[in-house]
Amino acid sequence: MSAQTDEAVLETRRLSKYFGSVIAIKDISMLVRPGTVTCLLGDNGAGKSTLIKTLSGVYEPSEGDYLCDGEVIHLHSPRDALARGIATVYQDLAMIPLLSIWRNFFLGSEPTKGWGPFRRFDVKKAKEITRDEMGKMGIDVRDPEQPVGTLSGGERQSVAIARAVYFGARVLILDEPTAALGVKQAGVVLRYIVRAKQRGVAVVFITHNPHHAYPVGDHFVILRRGQVYGDFAKADLGLEQLVQMMAGGAELENLAHELQREAGDDAELREAVAVLEQEVKAVAAEPVVVERRADVVSDEEGRPEG
Q1: Secondary structure class of 200 (helix, strand, coil)
Q2: Cα dihedral angle (104, 81, 30, 232), rounded to 10 degrees?
Q3: Which of 19, 185, 241, 258 suits 235 as a labelling partner, its CA being 20 to 30 A distant?
Q4: E strands along the chain, which residues?
Q5: Which pLDDT score, from 0 to 100, does residue 284 have?
Q6: CB 118: neighbour CB atoms within 10 A?
Q7: What is the per-residue pLDDT for 247?
Q8: 129: Cβ contacts below 8 Å, ≥ 6 apart
Q9: CA separation for the pair 303, 306 (Å, rounded)
Q10: Distance, CA of 66 to CA of 119 (rounded, Å)
Q11: Residue 95 near residue 102 (C-beta atoms within 8 A)
Q12: How far is the C-alpha of 125 from the C-alpha of 135, rounded, in Å?
């Protein structure tokens, strides 16, 4: 059972990040609570990567406040974030394929035994902890000596998630963990996300796929052009509405018109355009009528151009 509470472990208030004259993110306000999955959605260039790097201490915000447990914090490096229990699992997973599962699990934080010049790597303890912690996440490790490079993409993601939870992650930020996975392996990763949530971890799940986000998410923050386009609890937003907001009916309609002009006498292309026009009609069939959550600060002024 998840340890869900109303107290936010992380909060951002009008958080912005500029690179010279380029506005990467502007006035981002959101809450992340323990025992919940907050899905951060947006297309390429929406500002997802900049936001997670700001949350994880890679970037310092240009404006706004970043709070942890209700206290304003200033992170100067990812190590500062880890000290506060904020762990990030990036797409490359920070693993060495030729090393075993247990070596990757403790990479850089190896348990030791002995004293002084006789201190050495406690291999037996490392293997036992790896097997136990993976078991708590519902992962049966056949052989901890198995090289990580021989695991599937979903299994490697599970090792990274279990490692972060073991080392005290209170907030787990996952950067597109299902992006390069097939349907079955994506399902495996989603199951591990739910397991982390059930252990009371606050999960921030970054993705551009609403069909991956909706089954596990508790609320959804949608980014567009560096700003919050919507922030909704799951009870207030259906999957169809989420897909509609992600798809962008206007953009699809413009694309259909452009392809129609280019099609000319090409029967195959005209048929493809007709299919796209049907999808546009399906997306626009039900208008999204959802109120933005009242507990999130919003400001319609100062939107970045473009």
Answers
A1: coil
A2: 10
A3: 185
A4: 10-19, 22-32, 37-41, 63-68, 71-72, 86-89, 112-113, 120-121, 171-175, 202-207, 219-224, 227-233
A5: 46
A6: 7
A7: 65
A8: 105, 106, 111, 166
A9: 9
A10: 40
A11: no
A12: 15
Answer yes or no: is pLDDT of 2 > 90. Answer: no
Tokens of 253: 């309609």
Superfamily classification of domain 10-237: P-loop containing nucleotide triphosphate hydrolases (3.40.50.300)
Angle of CA points 102, 203, 73, to nearest 5°? 100
Please compute the mean of the pLDDT values over residues 24-46 and round it to a whole number: 91
Q: How many CB atoms lie within 10 A of CB 188?
A: 19
**Long-range CB contacts for residues 184-189, cutoff 8 Å, separation at least 24:** 184/154, 185/152, 185/153, 185/154, 186/154, 186/212, 187/154, 188/152, 188/154, 188/155, 188/157, 188/158, 189/154, 189/157, 189/158
pTM, to two decimals = 0.76
Residue found under tokens 């026009």? 277
Tokens of 101: 């599962």
The identity of residue 270, as a single letter, is R
Beta strands 171-175 and 86-89: pairing type?
Answer: parallel
Domain boundaries, the chain: 10-237, 238-288
Beta strand segments in 143-290, E = 171-175, 202-207, 219-224, 227-233
